[in-house]
Amino acid sequence: MNTIVLSENSNRSSILFAILMTVLAIVGILAIYHETVWSMVDTWYRSDTYAHGFLILPFVIYMVWTKRQSIAILNQQPSPTALIGLLVLGGLWLIAELASVQVVMQYTVVAMLPIVVAAILGYRTMYVLAFPLAYLFFAVPFGDILIPPLINFTADFTVSALQLSGIPVYREGTFFSLPTGNWSVVEACSGLRYLIASVTLGTLYAYLTYRSLIKRIIFIAFSILVPIIANGIRAYLIVMTGHLSDMQLAVGVDHLIYGWIFFGFVMLLLFWVGSLWREDRIDDDKSQRNDGSRIKDENNVVSIKKTVLITGSVLAVALIWPIYAAHLEKDINFVQPEFNFFHSDKSWHLTDDPVSNWDPIYIGSPGKFEAHFINGEYKRVSLFITYYQNQRQGNELINSGNVLVPEMDSPWKQVDENVQSFMVGSREITYRQVQLRSYYENLLVWRWYVLDNDETISPYMAKVMLAKNRLLTENDFGAEVIVATPYGLQPDEAIPVLQQFLKDMLPGITDSLDNVNKQ
């Protein structure tokens, strides 16, 4: 009898020590990658859209606590093979760090936490805690990439609904005009905040309310679709309220208040409907106790030494990558080299008169070159070259803060964008063609990125190129080339002007970029 009691006490001490080591390993991971972790917390604090991140950890701790009996009856089976997953995630974090892709860095750090559980406590324990551990991913402030398609959907839905209501609408991009006033769908109207709140709460609700995987998936799918459609209805109702009140109601902060009230009603309706098919939970712990494969084996006690060894290995593998990233860091006192532009074509002359009062906006401390050219009496082109070296978070070529036109408080608006290309000699140039419009002038803008000696129009490909260059050659040079010219009624008027300018000036632009890259 004493032998059995001692064995049970030994098992209990072993699992409690393993849990303590798991918690310490998780804290160690968060400390090792503290800059990445802090970037998430800082976003929660600054952005109302992602403020829910503060609630994720308490939710997860509660869900893990409800699983404590399930964990207690499992054998602790450390899994050294999980270190391979940790190694892969660390390498992915390094690549994301080199490319300055913060959201990937954040996801990889969160993904390390389930791997830590598997390495120290075993895959069975990780499986029991699968949902709480997966729910941690909602802490990552992800979703900005969804803003453009959400804005477009909301604009399409609103305009279509207005037309079906018999109201004449003139649309230009995300801007549209009614007889009573002008409207635009901006970031705050995209519905991203509603979507994230709905999915975060809907996923938790589905887990707590249903046992069937199919029902959980269906409810989560509705928690995605409903807020998107509801946001379109919300936008339509707000525009209709403004229109019918002769722009006296729902044209200021009050329309945001109406939006949250409407969203709250929709969420309550969604959860009420979902409750009609709720499934009462059975005693999972009892069913697991009756499952002989999951009962703890008193003879299978993992030694404290082995637990400490696997915990140390976890922290050692995690520490490799930040150390190597620090090795690749450049001098923080780096100064951008000066850009010198020389061109041999005599048909284009420098002028002090810019084509407009428009300038692109960039964050950080990039090198900038701006020049304005005239060819004959009517052909005028502005050239903007912005380049980064020693790129880091907040001082990088590809960043959401680098924009052609700010969303608010700008006389300019972007009305169209598409991808075009044309041949300059034997070289094909692919660029993004953007139409900008102000009250007094229209601009046609062509833009593309240069990473070392490669060109692309895709910000995602630019990130990949940056990571490759930093990893293989330690070169992180990146630039954006922009040419702009005015036009009257149709943008096609300006296309020959920009084509002629690039045919004449592109060799000089390329040589000048090569020179500043080599400095």
Description:
The protein is of the alpha+beta class and 519 residues long. The protein folds into three domains: 2-141 and 297-328, no CATH class; 145-275, no CATH class; 349-518. Helix content is 52%, strand content 15%. The chain is built from 16 helices and eleven strands. The chain has helices at residues 2-32, 34-46, 53-66, 68-72, 82-99, 102-121, 123-128, 130-135, 147-164, 192-209, 213-244, 254-275, 284-289, 304-328, 459-472, 495-518, and strands at residues 170-172, 175-178, 181-184, 349-350, 367-375, 379-388, 413-424, 427-437, 442-451, 454-456, 478-487. Strands 4, 5, 6, 7, 8, 9, 10 and 11 form an eight-stranded antiparallel beta sheet that branches. A three-stranded antiparallel beta sheet has the order 1-2-3, with no helix packed on it. A hairpin with a 2-residue loop joins strand 7 and strand 8 (427-437). Helix 1 crosses helix 2, helix 5 runs parallel beside helix 14 (304-328) and helix 11 (213-244) packs antiparallel against helix 12. The N and C termini lie far apart (79 Å).
The total of beta strands comes to: 11
Helix content: 40-55%
Shape: flat
- Uncertain regions: pLDDT < 50 for 5+ in a row? 1-7, 285-299
Features:
16 helices; 15% strand; 519 residues; alpha+beta; 52% helix; disordered N terminus; flat; single chain; 8-stranded antiparallel beta sheet
